[in-house]
Write the structure tokens for this entry.
Amino acid sequence: PDRRTGIRPRRDSRSRSPPRARVAASLLRAFFRASAMFATTTVASGRTMPGPIGARRRPARGEVPMSSTPRRALTSDARGKALSSRGARACVANGALIHGGVGARARGDGREANGRAYGAQMCSVLAMYDPNGAMEDGRETLMRELSARMVTRGPDGSGYFGSKRYGLAHERLAIMDPEGGKQPIVYEDGAKTYAVCANGEIYNFRKLQAKYGLTAAKTGSDSEVLLQLYKHLGVDFVKELNGIFGFVVVGDDGDHMIAARDHAGIKPLYIGYGKNGVKWFASELKAICDQDCERIEEFPAGHYWTPKDGFVKWYNPAWDSDDDDAVGTKDTSHVRAILEKAIIDQTMADVPIGLLLSGGLDSAVVSTVLKPMLEKSGQEYLSFTVGQEGSPDVTAARMMSEYLGTTHHEYLFTSEEACANIENVIYHLETYEPELIRSAIPNYFLAKLTSQHVKVVLTGEGSDELFAGYLYFRDAPSSKHIHNELRRIFGALHNVNCQRADRMTMAHGLEARVPFLDPRVIDAVMEVDPEFKRIEGEAKPEKHALRALFDGEIPDPVLWRTKAMQCEGVGLNWVEDLQKFCDEQVSDEDFAKAESTYPINPPHSKEEMYYRRIFEKHYHGMDKFVHVWEGGCRAGGAAWENNQYTRAGVKNVQQLAKGLTGVKGA
């Protein structure tokens, strides 16, 4: 080991890597880097200028930055046009369709005020627990090749470490501390070896190091605290973590290990059960779906796993109970301060941070809290929106950008682009659930655009599952029904909002942070009496409790805007075009065989069958654990009759334009 750090040299040097695996991974990374180098920029004259997106130049007014891809743009109504700027300091971007490229990276030297590097890691994890050494021969070669399938999560480098009984592989998105934060991180303590491979952020890692008097960290990575705590506390350390994560820690040279996933499943993790006692752990299904596992399952949120105890649920909030006293009784006076603290904690690093500004209430709240923080640090305020021209989201986001003075970027997509991108979205999303796919398509475009400007963004995900934001809560018969329904849909977040946010951003090497899903915020809002969340007509619309906390600080048309789900706010009619396209891809004869072709979760429409075909193409036999909403939509599983949504979407799209002028199709 290195005498200064005590860390064993990692087995990821070029001299030690198996040639076949090294070449495969290098070629994949080279492709994504090449994509960024040969981007084209459309200027007002309509001419194109080749140039590296990495040039950190703010686009001139009227200039349209194109996506970082050498591939031809899809035919688009807006392609080649000089779109006018909107907002206080805005540039409008119409990105071209890409297939997996990663844009330019944000500037920043990654140093805190005290000069210490903060090594944020948003990457991929691939681990093998092999207690009998059955796959020792060729393990590194195999794992490097499988890990490279997740290269979009970490295009900046790869690493591997292993012994007879385990292997850890990692694809790295180097936000900061590019040298010291490489993974796997390895400790040697006498004759014992400890190693960690992690994906995510541990927001309270410095507090935990101070609380337990841990020795000085040997790297600038927040993931290192996982090793420190495991040695100090054992498996119970997971309960101390505040963050978003999926990780594997190995101790005593493979005699002990723990795999864990965060409280809400914000970061993904899968487990595969192979032969001879082998266990696989992977951030994405694509890494292990063809590895001859007896079965593969999603690693449950809020759990950890050890060889001795199997799965153990470590996240057990008091509000998630059938007991009557679990229903909240507080008012909302304590909520804002806790939410602001969560946002502060999630902007702790000295990196340029952007905001996904949908134009809805949740992102408007985050943007309002974020503004003074960025002003204090002197950072430029960058916001990003996706939608069709004249959509409710684009209209409201421009209003918020003007109000806040952000440098605003938009991706204006067409229905043709959406249809052409279905397969790429399903491949990254790893599901066939129709409501989720519809909402993920615009998010894919948004992440593509955003990744060209920053590496880190805040989002408003999770608020609706805490404040009863969906329109079907209008019909909830009682406060107890509201509380129990929030428990139900919160428990599905890992398969819905969190899966969409993670997969679409990481498809482009972008890190998404979700302050509403900080465990302190979750507890604070779920402790609120659900009567505060009850919808009572125009006087008390959905999420009134949250709106009231920011009354007077957010423009009224945005503050009191009707809730629109992701696929609805970006355009009132594009989903109809999408569904028509899908219908044309499936014959009546094939659809008549839907139940016999897909006995698990059989499709109920040609749209659903088209999505299913694509999923089966990439993930054959993996359909059994895909989450599908009862009744075909989130509202379908509620304990009351739903008058707002069907399997195809919201019944009345015109209501989504309430309070906004200039919305197309309203």
